[in-house]
Amino acid sequence: MPLIEVKDLKTYFYTEDHLVRAVDGVDFAIEPETTLGLVGESGCGKSVTALSILSLIPSPPGKIEAGEILFHRNDAVVDLAKLDPKGSVMRSIRGNEIAMIFQEPMTALNPVYTIGNQIMESIIIHQRLRKRAAREKAIEMLRAVGIPSPEQRIDEYSSQISGGMRQRAMIAMALSCNPVLLVADEPTTALDVTIQAQVLNLMNDLRRDFKTAILFITHDLGVIAKMADNIAVMYLGKIVEIGTVRDIFHNPVHPYTRGLIDSIPVLTARKKKRLVPIEGFVPDAFDIPKGCRFSPRCAHAMEICHRQPPDLNEIKPWHQASCWLTTNET
Questions:
Q1: For 201, phi and psi rounded to 5 degrees?
Q2: Hey, what CATH topology would domain 4-97+177-329 get?
Q3: Where does CATH 3.40.50.300 sit in the chain?
Q4: What are 77-100's pLDDT values in tens digits?
């Protein structure tokens, strides 16, 4: 049984000038103790999808307009999309059973509180431990994520530690209550390559040790290849292809997926290969093209692509894509 199922999720933003359909009918599921990679360029709706799961969409102007986010919680199924964002049920889930690592730890961490105080706050609220026990748990978590001398670091502020340590502290905070699902939104974007590799290895180890499922959001397919069991490729508010890591990398079907893969530099290739960029840019979410949303940038677009959107069709079990080329071939 999936841990979480997202069904036809639509999250819109209502502005004075436009209706912004940031997420416009997204479907995916995450199995327990697995990692789903959600990839795509900036502006495709990945972060809004993550914020929708945790009911962190700013309202107004944002609103979950339709769809379901079914969270299999013990013996019950809770539709997170229907919960009051400030209600007791959502607050008991957020940070406790489902936690989030934000993209930029310097802005996510409060600079006026110590690292320890911020980790302890979640432990005290959700696990109902006393302050001394919460401090010991916070030190244990800092040690688990590889921060040296955690007994001293726990009393330091975010401005006193490096970017890599801030990201580790964010991971420690997110995992402090042993969540069943960790939502990681571009957790390594602001880090240099060496620290990025360390954080990715750390997250893989912690997933195994804490038996946590992960929704890993990134624009970097090279990163997701090391992290995910399954990959969902998102473009302009919709999933255009979803499958296992092997399917996506060895048998990509959608032209957008192929374009993302062709833009990855291969350092181990015997022959030099010119990178092939994807022409154009992601349109605004208030000016969505008719038909296939990728058609204005697609070199293989046919007449039908510009007037009618394709459905998400099964290529083989566990591998789906929305493209008229695959529909015609089948």
A1: -60, -40
A2: Rossmann fold (3.40.50)
A3: 4-97+177-329
A4: 999 999 999 999 998 899 889 998
